[in-house]
Amino acid sequence: MLPIFTVSHACAEKSAYGYKEAEVEVKRADSSVPSYIETRFYPDSSIHVVTTDNFSDPHFALDRKRIDQSFFPRSENDEKPEQ
User: Fold this and answer.
1) How far apart are CA 83 and CA 61, in angstroms?
2) Which residues pair with 79 in a beta bridge?
3) Which structural domain range is residue 52 located in?
4) Which helix (H) or strand (E) segment is 40 a member of?
5) Which residues fall within 8 angstroms of residue 16, CB to CB, at 6 or more apart?
6) Residue 25 has what pLDDT?
7) Position 13 in a domain
8) What span, in angstroms and rounded, lies between the C-alpha atoms of 37 and 24?
9) What is the pTM of this model?
10) d(Cα 44, Cα 39) in Å, to the nearest integer?
């Protein structure tokens, strides 16, 4: 994986992104031929995988008012969508 370099004004920032490997139990749907594989990553680092017959609703949602702590800077023309 290659590091990503960004330069803005007189500063340079190096960011390296990675991935996580984990062995997880796959909970199977009742049918013999499921239609979907749903993978969920939780804030406590747990990962849940389940096969389902139908697409299911989200299990939880992050608070929209939370502080954005992502490593991805906003683009110059980025605008929040209308509510």
Assistant:
1) 16
2) none
3) 22-57
4) strand 36-41
5) 1, 3, 4
6) 92
7) no
8) 13
9) 0.49
10) 15
Tokens found for residue 26? 């796959």
26-27 sheet: strands from edge to edge: 26-27, 47-52, 36-41
The identity of residue 23, as a single letter, is E
The answer as to whether 17 is a domain residue is no
Number of structural domains (the chain) is: 1
Residue identified by tokens 């390296």 is 16
Q: In a structure prediction context, what are the per-residue pLDDT tens digits for the chain, which is 83 residues long?
A: 455 555 555 555 566 667 778 899 999 877 778 888 999 888 788 888 999 888 888 777 777 787 877 767 766 776 665 65
C-alpha dihedral over 81, 18, 57, 42, to 10 degrees? -110
Residue 63 forms part of a structural domain: no
